């Protein structure tokens, strides 16, 4: 944590020009990456929205992060769709569909 803390910024101040967290389109018409990590062995699932740097070697920005604990797959898919409706992912929503897997059956 001591290594990461110097990298932290106050997004309300530093990103005020292009990031409005309560707007219908928080990042306007700029593309973002949406990443999803499904829970496989008891941990919780995670979803992040990352702004790509504008220039090579620039900084990535984590705009949103969510953890899904105890949510079924349909509820997680609805949350992912909600995030994709608010932002402009660089890939269509169907590209994210492979991440939302059905639980494995034990025989």
From TrEMBL:
Domain (Terminase large subunit gp17-like C-terminal) ranges: 34-89
Gene3D superfamilies linked: 3.30.420.240
Keywords: Viral release from host cell
InterPro entries xref list: Terminase_6C
Domain of life: Bacteria
Name the record gives this protein: Terminase large subunit gp17-like C-terminal domain-containing protein
Species this chain originates from: Pseudomonas fluorescens
């Amino acid at each position: 944590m001591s290594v990461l803390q110097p990298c932290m910024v106050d997004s309300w101040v530093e990103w005020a020009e292009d990031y409005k967290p309560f707007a219908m389109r928080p990042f306007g018409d700029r593309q973002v990456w949406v990443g999803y990590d499904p829970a496989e062995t008891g941990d919780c699932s995670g979803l992040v929205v990352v702004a790509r740097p504008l220039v090579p070697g620039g900084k990535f920005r984590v705009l949103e992060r969510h953890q899904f604990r105890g949510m079924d797959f349909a509820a997680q898919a609805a949350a992912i769709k909600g995030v994709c409706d608010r932002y402009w992912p660089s890939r269509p929503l169907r590209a994210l569909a492979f991440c939302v897997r059905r639980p494995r059956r034990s025989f």
